[in-house]
Amino acid sequence: MMEQFNQTAEAIIVSAERLIREGGYNGFSFREIATEVGVKSASVHYHFATKSDLAATVARRYTERFMVAIDDAMKCETNVRIVWINAFRRALVEDGKMCLCAVLGTTSNSLPVSVQTETRRFFECALDKLNLSGLTETQSVHILSTLEGAMLLSLIFSKTSVFDQAVKELM
Amino acid sequence: MMEQFNQTAEAIIVSAERLIREGGYNGFSFREIATEVGVKSASVHYHFATKSDLAATVARRYTERFMVAIDDAMKCETNVRIVWINAFRRALVEDGKMCLCAVLGTTSNSLPVSVQTETRRFFECALDKLNLSGLTETQSVHILSTLEGAMLLSLIFSKTSVFDQAVKELM
DNA sequence: TTAAAACTATCTACCGGTAGATAGGTAGGT
DNA sequence: ACCTACCTATCTACCGGTAGATAGTTTTAA
After folding, report:
1. Domains, in order of start, for chain A
2. Does A152 touch chain B (CB under 8 A)?
3. Model-level pTM?
4. Nearest to residue A156, comparing CAs of A102, A118, A108?
5. A128 CB near a chain B CB, below 8 Å?
6. Which of the 8 DSSP states describes residue A79?
7. What does the pLDDT look like over A92-141, one tens digit per residue?
8. Which of B86, B84, B118, B83 is nearest to B103 (CA)?
9. From B99, which residue of chain A is nearest by alpha-carbon distance?
């Protein structure tokens, strides 16, 4: 089950996720999060000792939430590809932001190890899940790559239609 | 033709490209570049007035170089898909880094406008070139998305084989 | 021809501001 | 009494950017 945090810690995680998805690991600060949440930066340190602790927690949370969403969707829709396309599409359209782990992943080699590990775990979990859905490993890697790339192009052009176009060939 | 810079400015661009590809727009500083190049940070400002000026120049250079490489490769190999796969593969294997414009693109909405514009231009140029090679727009968007995503996954897993696996289905 | 003016490329020294992180204190609940 | 969750205050290190000086080179013009 998902690790529990109190109200302030939860608000910090939500704020941090948004800021990382917008500006990457180097694009958020304790002070900015503190202001958003309504506390002082020292209080953010009380809940998360270091920046890497916070980012790693955010990434783990993101992965857990994403994988639960996939499992839920699989209860209603048997076509694996449709489930995954919709999951990424929702992350793009509802949040208007990139996948958290894609943002972190592009700068993977400059991240603290704990954050790097959590980022990689997202992709490991995703590939495991795809493989267990009856796809070959090659198909899984191809689908996941295309989905992340489609999100990127769609965000850059600010057009959801680009995402839809990119993933059309996955079906 | 490509804009000319003197030796120091060229070294600054090379250094900045490497640092941005490793840590994103917020992951490089005038001081770090200055140290690498062997001058003081004030001298970097002499060649590039602001951080966004430098990043925009780096992105424009990257795009020009990439598109020239595609044109060159098309002289020897007629299969468009092979040309593009090899171009991305080389950027990944030889540099061991992500595509510059993918790194910048993931945080697109938090970039200075000039950098955002240059980043988008890379993808516009790429799609134009693909479209002019006899592919449909849907095919072009799909290929470019998959290539960027394949680079990302390959980098995260530190395995070139992941790239090869992801793009196998493009052929 | 040569002296003055302008330009290039760098330096040192500094600005206000922000970064992550820490020490130590306080109010309220159990 | 202790623990939780905050606070104020502070630290060192670094950020992007600017001012002003300097030495060497090039252009201008008497």
Report:
1. 7-168 (1.10.357.10)
2. yes
3. 0.96
4. A102
5. no
6. -
7. 999 999 999 999 999 999 999 999 999 999 999 999 999 999 999 999 99
8. B118
9. A106
